[in-house]
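Translate sequence into structure tokens.
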Amino acid sequence: MNAVFWAAGGTGFTFFMTMCGAAMVFFFKKSPKQSIQRIFLGFAAGVMIAASVWSLLIPAIESAQEAGQIGWIPAAGGFVLGIAFLMLMDALLPHLHPGADSPEGLSSSLKRTTLLVLSVTLHNIPEGMAVGLAFAAAAQEGNAASFSAAAALALGMGIQNFPEGAAVSLPLRKEGCSVWRSFAYGSLSGLVEFVFGVLVVLIAGSVTPLMPWMLSFAAGAMMYVVVEELIPEAHLGEHSHTGTLGVMAGFIVMMILDVALG
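Result follows.
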């Protein structure tokens, strides 16, 4: 139950940060300028790239090797499965990216506002899994360094969730939703992190030998989000120094958090 408790706390923090970001709708009527959006998107991408490497793939390889396995097999295999999972979800779940005219996924009669929320909700699934699995792995190892590393991951994810919450609530307000409804939808988009973070810990507790596969699965899913959505949106069809610097800044911040607290 310790792992569940810590995972609930970690993903609860990332959910709280999403709520704080969504609360920006009370202070701003319009979405941030494109240059600011590029920085935020780039920063989120950088955080997720660093987290995929330091917090997920490296621990997956080390865990497999400690169990007498070949380290790269579960790392590469789980990574590919994570990509396949997100590609499948991307193809099936109806969703609409902010600024886009037509939705992706299966055809649906859902409103634009609902499709916008589903877009960010889809991307939050691997983030919740990553934080939950980090705490599950720390509980298995039972040392302070592992819990510090998991806390660093939760902190990094929470930081990048702040602009993510705003990226949902502000466009919803622009679409005609009330302020409170925009805030509620923006907040709920982060609830999936809490749900998947706790669920994956419950599953991981009963399949300990699969932990390296599950860690790399979360890494693959996050990297799919980064390459498919965040980096292209950070550049918005053109070369952008702000988007590029945002990626670098996010990578450095997450790397420092992981190394300093790990």
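Note: The longest helix spans residues 34-66.
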